[in-house]
Amino acid sequence: MRLQTLIQQTQGLSATKARKWIHQGKVQVDGQVVLDGNRAVDPSLQTISVANERVGESLGYRYVMYHKKKGQVSAKSDRQWPTPFDELPDDYQGLTIVGRLDRDVTGLLLLTDNGQWHYLMESDRFHIPKTYLVTVNGRIDDEMVRKFQKGVVWSDGFQCRPAQLEILETCETKSIGRLTITEGKRHQVKKIFLACGVKVIALERIALGPFTLDPFLEEGTYRPFTAEECQVVLDILKNYQR
User: Fold this and answer.
1) Is the same domain home to 144 and 200?
2) How far apart are CA 153 and CA 147, in angstroms?
3) Active-site residue identified among 102, 113, 156, 235
4) Whole-model pTM?
5) pLDDT for residue 25 is more than 60
6) How many independent structural domains does the chain possess?
7) Which uninterrupted H or E stretch holds 200?
8) Where is the RNA-binding S4 domain (predicted)?
9) Residues 205-215 pLDDT 10s
10) Are residues 89 and 159 in the same domain?
């Protein structure tokens, strides 16, 4: 949320009065006076003080890692298919999914109620890398790796951004690779491999930006972000404001 909004809510001030307090240097973020009321802050990750008294801790955002199961749709609710929210407690029902996955895809989902961070992680403007373990029904070879590096061209002429493909296992009937892309077109991973003559038969997202799927997190389970992951969230927000 904006710093001015936080000061208004916690101090019961009008917008004009909150701006005045900020401009007078009465507000600190992590021990530093901040004069910009439009600055994005998260009181769950930062110490916000007014006249040296901390405020707004209960207004902080939440960040959750979830290991999506195959067959779930990335939605709040669905009449036909299960969703991740079926596995979440009531106090997490207000969160939204960052980086949706197709129903047949497993792996890393992030959830939050921080709208700005959600936007930064999903917007195609920022080229957030997404990494997948991909199993296909044919051979992945060096020529395919080079095509990915240049940017695969679809049948309609659309050229994807350059991507990194690493061969983990390969043979004529089945191959496994690690793929990192920096855009999020609909069914993009499946369409890229189809353009190269093979079909994706299993797909798992293992990383989204700097966040990596916890290897101890079983499918259908979740956990709050660690302190280290929360610091990464804060770094992303700070970099955006520069």
Assistant:
1) yes
2) 9
3) 102
4) 0.86
5) yes
6) 3
7) strand 200-208
8) 1-60
9) 999 999 999 99
10) no
